[in-house]
Amino acid sequence: MMKRAFKDKVYGELSKITKAMGNPHRLEIIDLLGQGPFSVEQIANHTGMSVANASQHLQVLKNAKLVCITRDGNFILYSLAGENVFNAWAALRALGIVYNAEVEKVVSDFRKGYGPIESIDAEGLIVLLEKDKVILLDVRSAEEYNRGHIHRALSAPIEELSSILKTLPKSKTVIAYCRGPFCVFADEAVALLKKKGYKAQRLYEGFPDWAAKGYPVAIK
Question: Where is the HTH arsR-type domain (predicted)?
Answer without folding.
Answer: 6-100
